[in-house]
Amino acid sequence: MNGGLLDPALNRAPDYPSHIHLIGICGTGMAALASMLQERGYTVTGSDHNVYPPMSDFLARLGIEVMSGYAAANLWARPDLVVVGNVVRITNPEAMELAKLGLPYLSMPQTLGHFFLAGKRPLVVAGTHGKTTTSSLLATTLHRLGADPGFMIGGLVEAFGRNARLGDGPYFVVEGDEYDTAFFNKVSKFHHYRPHCAIITSVEFDHADIFPDLGAIKASFAEFIDRIPPAGALVACMDDPVVAALAGAARCPVIGYGAADCEWQLTDLHAKGLSIEFTVVQRGKPLGRCTLPMPGRHNGLNGLAVIALLHHLGFAFEAIVAGLATFEGVKRRQQIRGVVRGVTVIDDFAHHPTAVRETLHGLRLAWPENRLIVVFEPRTNSSRRAVFQAEYARVFGAADQVLIREHVPLDTLPMSEQFSSVRLAADLAAQGAAARAFPDTEAILAALDDLCREGDIVVILSNGGFDNIHERLLAQLDRPG
Fold first, then answer.
1. Which run of H or E residues covers position 251?
2. For the chain, how many helices (H) and strands (E)?
């Protein structure tokens, strides 16, 4: 399991730790974990290869010591527990020193489960798409309902200005990622999250670097579902046939949402700018209208999942929809970064083909009369592989212009097995779409300088920083002349 480097007997939390060290502390989840551990009273230190804002500033404000770069000496203070981030490989000098010193160690998901989920009722949101948005909706609405939830989510929740919180209430909301845990624990992260109840939004093939096929992903989700106790519940999107099949084997109650024959249905959806309004139907009976300040039917379904779960937990429908109506959003999820000279620049995390399609459909509903210009950066391990090459050619139909950045090649694969932006642009052009491939961000910005005009909606799709293209574009649009 760990390549013989670490002693499996030491993969545990000591009884009375005082000093906890995090290897890879500047990751979004690890930094959030560090802040919660410090709030619990532990002395926290950490290290990372890339120590830079915003996480370096966040940790500095907390007074958490961060060593720049990985080195054996970072562990010579002999912390009581070492948390090993997912970014850490078996060849990392601190991982090797950890083995030499024989210190107790945990992964990030194991640490979250041990220190923060014990004694709580974890509400875990899982699925290929919509995890961050749905878990943020759930945590924010629970907060508005006075339930004081804890949470740990993969995006910055605007209502709190952070992505993690301890909370004194009984519920802890977790974004349940199916990606693997650590080099010494090659199971999905959500297997460590002790679900009392769970939402599953969708199950598709993704993470091609760790899952060989959809069957392997289904097996991991099946194991996750089996961890939900009979006293809990699974809220499952029955629009997804894979989710429906997996839910059929659950040992807990299953609450279906989405399709016409489900317990919870979404009907009569209307777009109002960046907001949507729809009717919520339970067991064939309309309960009322729900307004959600996010575009797209997919976000309506995310909101419906939250309604179904919170109703199951005993909250009143009217109070739930009132909470949803005040949702402030999540950074990098259909987030307007600015409007300059009538051009609206939007940042979104979408990268999987299904997420790209649904995001663009939602934005088209919000701006039916405007030109929609899409800038796409294939950056994930899956999107840089040829596995989705043909599928990407079918998901940009809502766009008026598509600008595609060439990917950074994967060192571990021959180019014949990697994604091609040039090929995608050609495939889209063959369908009559206006699409072009570009070698880098600078070339895209130059093209946008000529292309953008008043009324345009420019949506930038990437799971990374994309060379700060959002702010650079806004500054470019603001230039005189």
1. none
2. 14, 23
pLDDT at position 351, please?
A: 79
Report the run of H or E that residue 61 belongs to, with start and end.
helix 55-62
With a cut of 90, say whether residue 316 has pLDDT above it: yes
Distances in whole angstroms, Cα of residue 386 to Cα of each of 206, 304, 431, 445: 12, 34, 20, 26
CA separation for the pair 286, 284 (Å, rounded): 7
Cα 274 from chain centroid? 21
Phi, psi of 321 (to 5 degrees): -70, -30
User: Cα–chain-centroid distance for residue 353?
Assistant: 15
The residue ranges of DSSP E strands in 321-433, in sequence order, are: 335-340, 343-348, 372-376, 401-405
At 455, list the tokens.
Answer: 């009324």
Please give the model's pTM, rounded to 2 decimal places: 0.80
Instruction: Give the residue from 274, 332, 263, 326 showing the smallest Cα distance to 299.
Output: 274
What are the phi and psi torsion angles at 325 (to 5°)?
-65, -20
Structure confidence by residue, pLDDT tens digits, 9-61: 999 999 999 999 999 998 888 988 999 999 999 999 999 997 766 777 888 88
Tokens describing residue 301: 């379904």
Helix spans in 125-213 (H): 131-144
